[in-house]
Design brief:
It contains 8 helices and 14 strands. The chain folds into 2 domains: about 70 residues, Ubiquitin-like (UB roll) (Roll), CATH 3.10.20; about 140 residues, Rossmann fold, CATH 3.40.50.11690. The chain is of the alpha/beta class.
């Protein structure tokens, strides 16, 4: 008789459920933030570690900086970025010379090496310049566009003749009065800060403009108008324009300013006071003495 074979052992059934840690991993991978951190953050951390390790050596950092400098120079020195000359527009020869003096640029130069804002501020700081713009134009030219100050008067400050604009801002210096005969002359402390009033008085005196030599600020309070022949009109602190009109009316009616009058004092609005020249006063004194028999 054959021996009976042992019955086959039952195969163990594998549990399809994940392990505890596998389950947690699957759950975390379902979280978008965690999934991105694993797929993106991990490579970045590895790269950072590798780069940090490489750059920890000074020779590696120096090599990298040298390569960066060479690449930067290769781009900046390309012909399309080079500036070869300077063009100054909107200015006369004197201002152009001043701009070239304050911007001593050696051409050719890369546009990356130019601080355009600093250059603009330097040009705008010139006395004769009101506004300025600096840019790199076509054809590799450094274009400086200038808006010059427009002087409206000459201010005599001591022995210096200064040009000032409508805001009383210094706009340059001239050597002599003959250089700008077209501009009125003012003098005295505080004259430049009252330029609007001075110009209004010059306009009011237009009927006698050929005889007006200038205005002098007296005590920083009022004006004296100086005429040729040594004549002077003393104007009041208030109502100077009306006083000029009265003097012109008297001159039209009685040729006041053609007489031997040295000073026309209009400081008292109620009464004009005349002061004769020395020669006229002496002549009148002699006539008076003759009339009294002396």
């Amino acid at each position: 008789m054959r021996p009976l074979s042992a019955p086959p052992r039952p195969r163990a059934i594998k549990d399809p459920a994940p392990s505890k840690w596998g389950y947690r991993w699957q759950r975390m991978m379902l979280t978008p933030g965690f999934r991105i951190a694993v797929r993106v953050g991990t490579p970045m951390i590895l790269i950072a570690v590798i780069v940090g390790t490489w750059t920890a050596k000074p020779e590696n950092r120096a090599l990298f900086a040298d390569h960066v400098a060479q690449a930067k120079a290769a781009v900046q020195q390309r012909p399309e970025f080079m500036v070869t000359d300077m063009q100054v527009t909107g200015a006369d020869a004197a201002i152009i010379a001043d701009v070239q003096r304050v911007l001593p640029v050696t051409f050719p130069v890369s546009s990356f090496d130019l601080d355009l804002e600093d250059m603009r501020a330097t040009v705008a700081a010139l006395n004769a310049v009101q506004e300025a713009t600096v840019r790199v134009g076509e054809g590799g030219a450094l274009v400086v566009e200038v808006t010059p100050r427009q002087p409206v008067a000459i201010w005599r400050a001591g022995q210096t003749l200064k040009l000032i604009d409508a805001n009383g801002v210094f706009a340059g210096v001239i050597e002599s009065r003959a250089d700008r005969r077209d501009l009125p002359l003012i003098a005295g402390d505080g004259a430049q800060t009252n330029i609007d009033e001075a110009l209004a008085l010059f306009r009011a005196a237009s009927p006698i403009a050929t005889r007006v030599r200038g205005l002098v600020r007296m005590g920083e309070r009022r004006w004296d108008m100086v005429l040729d022949r040594g004549q002077r009109i003393l104007l009041p602190e208030e109502g100077a324009r009306a006083a000029i009109d009265r003097v012109i009316a008297l001159n039209d009616a009685q040729d006041l300013l053609k007489r031997d009058v040295a000073v026309v004092d209009m400081r008292n609005p109620a009464r004009a006071t005349l002061r004769m020249t020395t020669e006229a006063a002496n002549a009148m004194r002699r006539v008076s003495d003759t009339g009294t028999g002396e």
